Amino acid sequence: MVHFVGEAAMTPASIISAAGWYELAVMRRKGDLFDVARDGEKDLIVALYGVAVWLGETTRRQATAECILSRIVEGTEVAAHLDGSFQLAVVDGTRREVRLISDHLASVPLFYSHLGRRLAFAPSGRGAGAILGRRPRLSLPGAIGYLTVGYPLGDRTMLESVSRVRPAHQVLYHASEGALRTSAYWDLRLGAGQRMSVRDAARELHTGVLEAHRSTLVDDPSEVHLALTGGWDSRLVLAALCEIGRPPARTFTWGGSSHVDGSDPDIATKVAAWAQVPHTVLSYDAADLIANLDAWCLESEMLSDNTGHFAAGSRFLAEHGLSPAVVLIGDQLFGPGGMFSRRDDAVAGALGIPWPELPPSTEAILKSGARGELLDAVGHQVEGILALCSSEHPKDLHHYLSFHTGLFGWLMAPGYYKEPVVAARRPLLTRTLLDLVTQWPREFRIDKKVEIAVLKKYHPGFHALPTQSSSALIDWRSTIGPSGILSGVITRLVAGESLRQSELRQVVDFDKCTSLIAGLSDGKRNRIRRWEWAFEIRRALARVPGQEWLVQAMSRVGRGATGAGQRTTPTRLLFRVALLERFSQLLEGS
């Protein structure tokens, strides 16, 4: 039996039945792009969510469910020929099999659960589990990843027995056997790259970026908005949209305050003014986290620890008149991080933790003897990802891991400007551009070296505008201090009983978590800041080719200090524990 359903809050658009071994219920929300095609003679059904584009053709064309179905009938393996932002389900009644296909980013969430000869897949993990009658329970492997880096690793979720379709993967289910297999149809092919100049790389990237934007808007949406932080990525998207004659109807940015000089809202407003595009600053407050806490725990299913998502809530864009328009985002992978000389440093840079150690704040809340267990569990998950990388060079491993963890695990997790709130699209992350980047020399894949060269040469006005120098985001540390607005809420949740009854009790000492809250208000805070500063110095040095020896020396002198990244500060760790507690409570009551 196979089920495909939408969220419980949706209403059915159509229900298609077959010979009793599956039921395909297509459900949608207003503004969703859902397309279904069926071939009765071949007993094939194609259900397409989102926007897919054919690769390798002279003119980019949108791939509808009907044309995908016709190519499948012709015997074409369609996954390798598609780009875009979509999820695809193919039901073959003759072979009694279902194929779930994710786009190359897994940018549209799709979850599945398997029980005996039954498979369920849905836009949410709870939905997939509920179809099979599973009671939602917290997943220990997912929770370990969440506590360590802020999100589950690999195809794991925060729900037991529920998986998430990974980037560029197919999940094949045979109903007659009850067998389930996964395979990748595309991946980053990293290596030394071809010899070229920065000028040549910038020229190719500029051409590719323009084509990527035309491809991203292949369905000619009536209105496009742009999430504009004012950073290099989002200003490149804005510049490209203007160059192809498709400026956004509106740009927007967000923050706790709109009046901080040099902050994202301030810089984004200047960038939008230069492009002569209307701009909106969206504000939210830490107190909003309390109002949105329960709804967002269930909506996001804890796939990311971004506390801004909780404060903003799922109605954030709609309340500002920015939904359900198509939203473009400037997240990119042209060159994450710096140049690394050692495998462990590459992993540390991608995960933001002092690998193969744990952040001091994480070790401080573990039970005696649990450190090794936690490291083994995370190490097993990380090595499972790295085993598929085409290169063993530390920079390539770092780039690969950044794609399959930071990008998939964190950036693609539900957020207030991402699924499930809006159908976000990412023109700087098309397959064509990612394939282009993998051909660059490794030293070009450092932060945004070539991207900045593109702006400097082709969009000098955008390049000359100031960059972000201060923060207008909420200082979450102050909100859980002695007089902070969230102090009582977080303290009560950290002291809650739900996690203490879960499998996490094997590794976490929750009494130590309570002590950690008190520690934020005393002299430990300055020591914590020194750990963070040391990491930032190390990260800055890693961006400079030829300085790997100095980074390595710093690691030897004090691995914990120089490797303690921003992914797991004491404040973020406490929020993770508190949010996990509330999520676990809500699962128990569901």
Written account of the structure:
- The chain has 23 helices and 17 strands.
- It is of the alpha/beta class.
- A hairpin with a 2-residue loop joins strand 8 and strand 9.
Low-confidence stretches: 6-20, 27-31, 555-565
CATH architecture of the domain at 198-333 and 415-464: 3-Layer(aba) Sandwich
| Sheet with most strands | 6 strands, mixed
Q: List the total number of helices.
A: 23
List how many beta strands DSSP finds: 17
- Which class of secondary structure composition applies to the elements? alpha/beta
Q: Whole-number average pLDDT?
A: 85
Report the radius of gyration as a whole number of Å.
23 Å
Q: What is the topology, as strand order, of the major beta sheet? A: 2-3-1-9-8-10
Strand content: 15-25%
Q: Which helices and strands occur, and which strands form pairs?
A:
Elements: E1 2-4, E2 11-17, E3 23-28, E4 34-39, E5 44-54, H1 65-73, E6 82-92, E7 97-102, E8 111-115, E9 118-122, H2 125-131, H3 140-149, E10 163-164, E11 169-174, E12 179-184, H4 198-216, E13 224-227, H5 232-243, E14 250-255, H6 264-275, E15 279-283, H7 288-300, H8 307-312, H9 316-319, E16 326-328, H10 343-351, H11 360-363, H12 370-386, H13 394-411, E17 424-425, H14 431-437, H15 449-458, H16 460-464, H17 476-479, H18 487-494, H19 510-519, H20 524-542, H21 548-557, H22 559-563, H23 570-589
Parallel strand pairs: 1-3, 1-9, 13-14, 13-16, 14-15, 16-17
Antiparallel strand pairs: 2-3, 4-5, 5-6, 6-7, 7-11, 8-9, 8-10, 11-12
What's this model, at a glance?
With 590 residues, the protein is an alpha/beta fold.
